[in-house]
Amino acid sequence: MQRMQDTGRNKASEEKLRNLLLPGLAGDESAYRAFLQELSAHLRAFLRRRLVRLPDEVEDLVQESLLAIHNQRHTYDAGQPLTAWIHAIAKYKLVDFLRRRAKRELLNDPLDEEFGFAVAADTEAADARRDLAKLLAQLPERQRLPIVHMKLEGLSVAEAAKRTGMSEAAVKVGVHRGLKALAAMIRDAT
Asked: pTM higher than 0.70 for the full model?
């Protein structure tokens, strides 16, 4: 019964948002303003369900998602479900937020290190970093840099492309080929 209610609510939300966005894209400012208001409530609920333990972060992510959706509105294909497109953008913003948060948490010293509990883990991590650096050094720059920026630093494809001066497609290809080459090096080493 709950699932049927959710499905009905989702269809109603899809229809309402779509009926506001399409005229908004055609130049109807009041429809677009109403779309953004409805979208804010929709995103707030969507992100609240995913950030139950971080409720203070929801509003910032709503704003980031709204801005991204506004900036990418020209990419929406009216033949596709609107909420799927919206949710994809919001999920990317959520993943970016979680990556940034994880990076910040890595910079904080856990209390157990003060007591020497993590000495073995630190040694293993340092060994792993050194081994990875040796493997990465064997890759050509067009493969190494995209892997470092995207997989180790957590940058998006667009950010990695900007930093390397490569196209987004070249960055994706570089990551794919580089990871494939790393896997082959590891296989050959064992």
From this structure: no
